[in-house]
Amino acid sequence: MLSVALFGAFSLATTLVWSFESLLVARLLTGLGLGAAMPNLIALCSEAASPAQRSTAVGAMYCGMPFGAALAAAIGIVSPGDEGWRHIFYVGGFGPLLMVPLLALWLSESAQFVAAKSQLVKGTVATPGFVEALCSNGRTRTTLALWISYLGTLIVLYFLMNWLPSMVLSNGLTRTQAGVAMMMFNIGGGIGAVGIANVMDRFSRRLTVVGMYVGIAAALAGLASAGGSVSMAWGAFFCGLFLVGGQSVLYALAGQAYPTEVRGTGVGAAVAIGRLGSILGPLVAGQLFALGQSASMLVAASIPLIVVAAVAALAVVGSFTPPLVSRAAVPGGRGT
Predict the structure, then answer these.
(1) Maximum distance among all alpha carbons in the chain?
(2) Measured between alpha carbons, how far is residue 67 from residues 62, 192, 280 in Å?
(3) For residues 8 and 150, what is the distance between their CA atoms, to the nearest angstrom?
(4) Distance of CA 149 to the CA centre of its chain
(5) pLDDT in tens, 58-111
(6) Can you give the pTM of this predicted structure?
(7) Which of 52, 104, 156, 206 meets the CB 3.0–4.6 Å disulfide criterion with 335?
(8) What are the structural domains of the chain?
(9) How far is CA 80 from the centre of its chain?
(10) CB–CB of 196/141 below 8 Å?
């Protein structure tokens, strides 16, 4: 709740900035709240859902992010002019602040966490340290593989999220068409976040990971070759579908790879490493654009990173076996 209040308050503060330095502070503190909220939300969703539906639950939670970004793109389209950007931050600020009392009323604490915490209080289980949480009980390989998969995927994801409008404009299209492409990217991301996670719950985790990364590579190749407004919009849609959907699967895998007492730490560390990718992707792309490299070349050049991330994600899938639950084992056939 504190994390949500923090990023809501400083999203509103962003509309009041008076200098470049004040903008940096406002965005830093907004990111602090967002970065704190996401790992805890993933852990809560993982522990609230049944084992047979955990990926879908995390995907359903995470789809709010791309759908919210699609709303932001729509606000940008209908708010032209130099002052229109503030409208996005009004919505992004008041929305979370209105959610805080609803979280207070209806967000339950994880029963698994309460049970684990009681064992810690009684002294039957020692409180794990940061390194122990990530590396004990054979989790070192899983942790490193998660970090590599997050880093590679988020470098490409945030490169597109930050530079897709500029790519559209560089092809001679308008600002409105750039906004539409961004909106399509995020709509595809929202659909992919739920859809691919649901597929992973129902079918093979390994095949789902292979399929989503093949989809990412194909979508990037399609976007690199797109030229017109329609092809750019659909290329953006499929990039969002597989990239954002793939990221929701990685969040679900992280939530299942760690036990309850260290789940927040494990997921938080993976998200933090992924955020390095969200910094590196736009930064490196911006430098290459400044050197005269084309957007299509950069999109195509990101495919090898996706291959590395895919190999790492497959290593995560192979490092643990989530419990298989029979839906018939519980009255009503809903699983446990």
Answers:
(1) 66
(2) 9, 11, 24
(3) 26
(4) 12
(5) 888 888 888 887 787 777 777 766 667 788 888 888 989 999 999 999 887 777
(6) 0.73
(7) 52
(8) 2-105+130-320 (1.20.1250.20)
(9) 28
(10) no
